[in-house]
Write a structure and sequence with these properties.
With 65 residues, the chain is an alpha+beta fold. The protein has a domain of 41 residues. It is 42% helix and 22% strand. The two termini are 26 Å apart. The model has no long low-confidence stretch (mean pLDDT 85).
Length: 65
């Protein structure tokens, strides 16, 4: 029987969320990097130039498959 831990399942889902958010065009540029999400452990911070960009990024979470 296949068994997966809750921690592993959480990491798999979080990875999918992070990859999907990186595809959203709104972001800020820091050096050569363009960022719209920061994630560490179970914390996620969405980044944008203004509230509208952050709102659009958060709305894109609804459409992740």
């Amino acid at each position: 029987m296949f068994s997966i831990s809750t921690k592993s399942l959480f990491n798999l889902v979080l990875q999918k969320v992070i990859q999907s958010i990186k595809m959203v065009p709104s972001c800020i540029k820091i050096g050569k990097e363009q960022l719209n999400i920061l994630a560490y452990a179970d914390d996620i911070a969405l980044i944008g130039k203004n509230k509208t960009e952050i709102h659009c990024t958060s709305c894109s979470l609804i459409h992740i498959k």
